[in-house]
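INSTRUCTION: Work out how this chain folds

Token vocabulary: learned, describes local backbone geometry

RECORD BEGINS BELOW THIS LINE
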Amino acid sequence: MEFFSLACIIIGFVVLAIYLKRPNANAEIQQQVEQQLKLQIEQKDARISQLEKESVEKDTNLSNLNKQLEIASAKTETFEQLKTEKAKLEEGIKRLEIERNHLKGETISFQKAEEARQLESNKNIAAAVTLQQSLEKEKERLNDDRVKEKEDLIHKMKLKWSEHEKDVENHIQQICRNNIITYVSQEKFPHPRNKPDNSIEIMDQLVVFDAKSPANDDLTNFPKYIKQQTESLKKYAKHDNVKNDLFLVIPSNTLDVINQFHYNIGDYNVYIITKDALEPIILSLKKIEEYEFADKLSPEDRDNVCRIIGKFAHTTKRRIQIDEFFAREFLDTLSKAGTQLPRDILENVIKFENAEKLNPPMEKRSKQILTKDLKEQVDKLQNEMQLREIPKIETKIDFDS
């Protein structure tokens, strides 16, 4: 378009030059032509200026378009990068979704396992609580049983102490009947005042056996009480026909608080013995009757009598101590069995315990306990120990048939 305009202008100038070279040209026409040409030139200049402006604007627009193109190209490159990053992110998201689903599955498994564990834990806790309650009840029952056993023991001790005087009297009477010894009851004691509980007659002398027992279950003052009673026995010893060796018979379950078993009061002697020692002591005293007169006893025989009495007293004391020791050990073992054995085993133990029953030999008044029979039983027990290879404690025991 611009090239066409420029060609028209050049052609106009050529025509004008040819026209001006004509000799006969009219000056006016020439002037008009010049004006027209001038006008056309001005128009063309204006048009050229306009075209130049338009060209500048187009160049500016073109520059702007190039810039926009560059921007668009940069944006396109950025878009491609973003697209690539988007694809990577989408791939990462897919991986994350897969991992999330996997973790979700594991979480569900863990939740189920945790629920099962919690349920099992609750069951175990409930079982433990039940067991604890059962143990507490069992403990209370055992404590109640121990308290009841202690109360029963105290009651039995008090009952035994209350019956001690009558029991000693019956036992001495039985010994006298079995060995043909004269028993002198309290009513038949020849002296009107201060009559002892029991006495026997040996060689026209009265041997006093006075029964003493605690007033209550507190044994702290019992030794002091016994000592006071030894001093009060003077009321019997002052009589000529009363032997100056007197005996206080105490319950066997009080031996552990007694620390002195012989009192030399000067004019008389007092021996502290138990019911178990009555028979050997009475039999030893009866042997005096084998002599026509008491003063014919040799010093050796007198020593033998004293030795036998002392040995029986000591043996009785040791037996009570040993029985008391093993009783405490057995009670301690029973207590530990009630607290340390498993519940099911303890229940079976209680069942077997309730099914068991011990029947110790019953003592009969008409049947005499012979030393010979006891020796046979001991020999039988020793043979049983040898068969079972149980070691025994070597000691020397004298049996009198």
Notes: The CA atoms of residues 360 and 369 lie 15 Å apart. The radius of gyration is 67 Å. Residues 370-401 form one domain.
